[in-house]
Write a structure and sequence with these properties.
Radius of gyration: 13 Å
Order of helices and strands: EEEEEEEEHHE
Strand content: 35-45%
Shape: globular
Structural class: alpha+beta
Number of strands: 9
Distance between the termini: 26 Å
Largest sheet: 5 strands, antiparallel
Helix content: 10-25%
Length: 114
């Protein structure tokens, strides 16, 4: 994934899969439910988003960040991302539409961590 500066994933929880993130370039700020403070993960760093545990990330840097994202088991997130890409390709994303797409795949978009 290429994450533009200031962008990222909203707070969300996966019902079916764990997510693992390897930061290829740039810097990502990650908040994980239950952790006392956000984590700053630079190139070469890794973070884990366990199913059932809310997490959120954003690019805090000035340049695009590149992430390798692994989902295990693979239960359709590739289809979810294709649908989301199609929905946001036409302009600014509609949060309700994005939440509806995510819900079809067992991903709940939620209120901010804290």
């Amino acid at each position: 994934a290429v994450v533009p500066p200031g962008h990222g994933a909203p707070p969300h929880t996966h019902a079916h899969e764990d997510e693992s993130f390897y930061v290829l370039s740039g810097e990502i700020v990650v908040e994980i439910e239950g952790d006392p403070a956000p984590h700053c993960v630079a190139a070469g760093g890794f973070f884990f988003g366990a199913r059932g545990r809310r997490h959120v990330f954003r690019n805090a840097g000035a340049m695009p960040a590149r992430l390798l994202i692994l989902s295990t088991p693979s239960v359709g997130l590739d289809r979810m991302f294709r649908e989301i890409d199609a929905a946001v390709g036409a302009g600014p994303p509609d949060p309700a539409k994005l939440a509806g797409i995510a819900a079809k795949y067992g991903v709940a978009i939620e209120a901010p961590c804290g």
